[in-house]
Specification:
The protein has about 100 residues and is mainly alpha-helical. The protein is built from three helices and two strands; from the N terminus they run αααββ. Helices cover about 40% and strands about 5% of the residues. Strands 1-2 form a two-stranded antiparallel sheet. InterPro entries: Asp/Glu-ADT_sf_sub_c, GatC.
Length: about 100
């Protein structure tokens, strides 16, 4: 399976990519190598192989999620460049 220059240019147009002439030839070679590799994978017999659901049999062991405040409300507002009583003041983003 190989791709020609016209197909590469069409793919570049759809991807909003621009190549000069030297890079175009380099990309064409790389794309053909990738497609050849995928074609080799396609030829493998995977009928007896079960689908892989997880990469390993390990199960995540996570600590319990415990909510706690590490910074008080006043400490959080102390470094704010602009504040209004209990709130941060930010520039208006919606009109």
């Amino acid at each position: 399976m190989s791709t020609d220059l016209a197909t590469l240019r069409q793919l570049a147009h759809l991807s909003r990519l621009e190549f000069d002439a030297t890079k175009e030839q380099e990309m064409l070679g790389d794309l053909n190598k990738i497609l050849d590799w995928v074609d080799q994978l396609r030829q493998l017999d995977t009928a007896t192989i079960e689908p892989l659901v997880h990469l390993s049999h390990e199960i995540n062991v996570l600590r319990p999620d415990e909510a706690h405040n590490t910074v008080s409300h006043q400490e959080g507002l102390s470094n704010a460049p602009r504040k209004d009583s209990d709130y941060f003041r930010v520039p208006k983003v919606l009109e």
